[in-house]
Amino acid sequence: MPLNIVVCIKQIIDPETPMSQFAIDPRTKRQAPGNNPLVISPYDANALEVAIQLKEKQGAKVTAISVGGATTTTALRSALSMGADEAILVNDPFLAGSDQRGIAHALAKTICKAGAYDLILTGCESGDWADRAVPAFLAEELEIGYVGYVTRIEVRDGQVIVRRVVEDGYELIEAKIPFLAAISSDETNTARYAKLRDIMTAAKKMIPVWKAADLGLDPERIGLGAARAAITDVYIPVKESKCEMIEGNTPEEKAATLAAKLRELKLI
Amino acid sequence: MPGTLVLATTKDGRLTRDTLELLAGASRLKEKLAQPVAAAILGTGVGPYVPLLFAHGADQVYRAEHPLLEGYQGDAYVVAIHQICERAQPTVVLLPGDVMGRELGPRLAYRLQAAFVGEFIDFDLDQASGRLQFTRQAYGGKAIAVVQPHVNSVVATAKLRTLEPAAQEEGRTGEEIRIDVALEASQLKTHLIKRVREEATGINLGDAKIVVSGGRGIHGPEGFKLLEDLARVLKGAVGASRAATDAGWVPSSWQIGQTGRNVSPDLYLAFGISGATQHVAGISGSKCIVAVNTDPAAPIFKVAQLGIVEDWKAVATTLIERCRELTGK
Lengths: 268, 329
Ligand SMILES: Cc1cc2nc3c(=O)[nH]c(=O)nc-3n(C[C@H](O)[C@H](O)[C@H](O)COP(=O)(O)OP(=O)(O)OC[C@H]3O[C@@H](n4cnc5c(N)ncnc54)[C@H](O)[C@@H]3O)c2cc1C
Ligand SMILES: Nc1ncnc2c1ncn2[C@@H]1O[C@H](COP(=O)(O)O)[C@@H](O)[C@H]1O
Known about the structure:
Distance between the termini of chain A: 60 Å
CATH architecture of chain A: 3-Layer(aba) Sandwich
Largest sheet of chain A: 9 strands, mixed
Number of strands of chain A: 15
Oligomer: heterodimer
CATH class of chain A: Alpha Beta
CATH superfamily of chain A: HUPs
Structural class of chain A: alpha/beta
Number of helices of chain A: 7
Bound molecules: flavin-adenine dinucleotide, adenosine monophosphate
Number of domains of chain A: 1
Radius of gyration of chain A: 22 Å
């Protein structure tokens, strides 16, 4: 029986756009999109990569799902061209303003409606809000095992062995299927670039769009009204610092000056 | 009694600095909200920590001893802290923003039907409404967001190395409450097989007074050996940017920044790191940041106090020699 893997992906404004391109829309109190590209939130792309590698190694059906607006189809299509087999978009105005619990509720219902699942993968944090909450809420709602900061996964005889990054090293953790892992990055899971041929094939695939009503979402849990906290303001902090540049004719001279300075400051 | 509950953690026979930071936050909340500070301590043989928690500001300590609580395991911890919350009825639960707290916080919030605030850097009472509100970073550290919970029960993780640790007050005591946690091995869905430590100099990044850090500009794993030498001479720890950990040059646990560790050393030496906001998010508590980068326009120079525009290698090599001379080793 091949594994059923669901990967939850979120589309965001490219988080690596430089500060000079970054602005807050004073009306919405959110990042002004400007001309910045929309991307799959980086760690979600690592999660997709982990799923696709498992598929290549031992066979799996990979389904990418996302709660988002109409533009999110683009992110799901990139997931398909990377190697996901199916994609589902949940897009409903009732979901606007949902907190992480609302998003997790929609994801949980989508996953159950889509069929049997063995593994659910998410990013360890979204690139825009980094709440680090959706994966935990989702695991709680589905009542399945959950571990965060996972970089590698092995599946053997219905057991999952994950490698999880911790403060002073890493851990190997064993879990039963079904299981949810929130993925962090390392050298083994850098997201691949899609091949042109796969992009063409993905372009022809149907991406169903599901609504709150199709999923039987609990109206008490979704939308702005159900959010347990409000983001009342977002602003760019003013930072002031002046950097003293150390001069000298050679790198050695500069380094020596630095060492002396650090000694003077009693830092070394 | 409503109050603030802090989850305490220990390491090598002491309360962690993370715990002292949380207790400092809870004491500030006590001033603002006039509600007591409680701490929860889980594990086996944790009795000796109780007086330490009182001395650092706890009015009550909930002590839960159970063999399954020895060492962090998510399913066990969430059950235990949930049971403590049912007894203590806290309005605010504070957890450290580490791997444990980031995992546990939202799980607990889900069970308590509480609001969840991830990685706050500060909090205050809203002048207009009098409600508690938190500030936190957003958009990879490019912006600050103000978050106001609507409900009277909040679980929040604190961004580590942001709050000053609570000081010890001799003779301060409080009330100890023993909790018999109902917990069975069958409730645990995951099992630890192995734990591997990867600290190069044996010094923990979060506690280090000096951190030597490298990025993509180091151009490979060999360069990090030199940075390790420098760290050893300086009795510091080695860290890295995500570009360096993602390249596999150094272990992932060395990553400093938004996803990785927060550090607040006296001295942070950044070699070949551009200074992306997600990296800077993890070093902003540092007293002195020194940047060495070939690009004078690199954003790291906007947050550094001292800068050198040079190839990192020549600078690091001379620094090692000089520091050996200066420190007499
Ligand atoms: C959601 C999210 C979370 C993230 N979390 C983190 C995190 O926790 N930590 C983190 O670090 N990043 C994080 N990032 C990534 C971050 O945005 C940057 O991509 C990353 O920090 C860049 O690493 P770098 O500075 O080493 O590499 P680069 O940005 O490529 O910079 C390399 C620098 O080296 C300099 N250089 C090159 N050669 C030399 C030389 N010979 N000598 C001296 N200097 C040289 C260059 O001028 C350049 O400034 C995150 C990103 C996202 C989207
Ligand atoms: N709208 C969404 N649709 C699908 N997955 C999401 C969504 N929001 C968050 N996630 C998943 O949850 C992870 C953590 O997000 P966050 O809790 O916002 O840090 C992301 O990396 C995604 O994998």
